[in-house]
Amino acid sequence: MAPIQVGLLGIGTVGSGTFNVLRRNQEEITRRAGRGIEVTMVADLDVARARSIVGPDVAVVNDARQVIANPDIDVVVELIGGYGIAKALVLEAIAAGKHVVTANKALLAVHGTEIFAAATAKGVVVAFEAAVAGGIPIIKALREGLTANRIQWLAGIINGTTNFILSEMRDKGLDFDVVLKEAQRLGYAEADPTFDIEGVDAAHKVTLMSAIAYGIPVQFDKAYVEGITKLGAADIRYAEQLGYRIKLLGIAKRREADATTGQSAGIELRVHPSLIPAKRLIANVEGAMNAVVVQGDAVGTTLYYGKGAGSEPTASAVVADLVDITRLHAADPDHRVPHLAFQPHTIDAALDTLPVLPMSEVVTSYYLRLRVADQAGVLAKVTGILAEAGISIDAVLQREADEVGGEGSTQTDVIILTHDTREGTMNEALAVMQGLPTVLAPITRIRKEELA
């Protein structure tokens, strides 16, 4: 049987890794796929560089549309990134009857519903294991390994840049701005790190995981997104003293209808810093590593850990998708399970039965840090406001003024851990507390997740 012919759009970090892994492990991959897989054409603006990577036996062009137009190409691998030309090329490849593999989480999180509908109509596959958590096969786990389960929740450290920064802040006691500069110097953070540090990259990824876990369309525009830029070294330190660590988590959670509270069924879709008990395995994921915890009703809790980026870790996921497509290539298109795990004709029903809930309806517990005047009655006023709002307190930690501001300081920190409450209720209580004349700085609020 003739090999599957692959065209690469872009041969940068991931593209070169994909080419090298396919060539190095060709025999093993062919055995597992049941058929050979060969890169026979590459498009890259830097033709000379591309030629130096792939050698003389692979066609190299500077126009991606030449790859799409080639009738011998079975699968197009899009590794350009971004929303613009990448979207056009993916849709053109689908229209040409090509299967598509992509590592482009931003594209799929924003335009995935349109792209997957087009693929289904054309009878081709769009596969995207490399778009989430690099080399960790979390998409395959959700689509296949956990298919017997009703997924109750998932939570992931899915951005290596922010995890590196938070790890360094904890290890060295440094503030965010200092560690960000070091991360940029070491190459862990981009010159413009906005997508990473503001949580957007993680939100792209958790949006895709939520679609697979719950059979809903991608709805990035409805995700709550909060980054790590407002975290201080003090918060990292206080969390440690309380037995927690702070991680940026992408969370998707199924919420059932509750007649007593009037809560409707829906999906929580959110990215934000979270306090996690230090004894949890995911709390000990350090540096630029990624990890995802999934809770299923049958299997219980499972953890997936590994490198979330890099040339060959991400290439591992790209090649896994190529193997899947090779196995499915001759299958009846009408009976394939879509890679997003929902059929386009069910979109309206999914939106009605499992809507993404507004953040104000999310129920969780909280860490609050208040910089207050060191005088009598302050704590009583703060706890009184929480009590009036019906928010139960789990623990209170008050620091000595000298410890916070130095000898003779007239300010101190009060740290409060609460029990579960609705986000909207907490927002109202925070607004009242912030208005107290004895509260001297913006209140820090971090959500707490037990992940058990």
Give an overview in words.
By secondary structure, the protein is an alpha/beta fold. It has three domains: 4-136 and 312-350, NAD(P)-binding Rossmann-like Domain (Rossmann fold, 3-Layer(aba) Sandwich); 140-307 and 352-359, Dihydrodipicolinate Reductase, domain 2, CATH 3.30.360.10; 362-448, Alpha-Beta Plaits, CATH 3.30.70. The chain is 39% helix and 24% strand. It is built from 17 helices and 17 strands. It has helices at 13-24, 26-33, 47-54, 64-69, 84-95, 105-122, 138-145, 160-172, 176-186, 194-197, 200-214, 233-241, 311-328, 347-353, 378-388, 401-405, 423-434, and strands spanning 4-9, 37-43, 59-61, 75-78, 99-102, 126-127, 151-157, 224-225, 244-255, 266-277, 289-296, 300-307, 363-373, 393-398, 411-418, 421-422, 444-448. Strands 7, 8, 9, 10, 11, 12, 13, 14, 15, 16 and 17 form an eleven-stranded mixed sheet that branches. It has a six-stranded parallel sheet with strand order 3-2-1-4-5-6, sandwiched between helices. A hairpin with a 3-residue loop joins strand 11 and strand 12. The radius of gyration is 24 Å and the shape is elongated. The chain starts with a strand and ends with a strand.
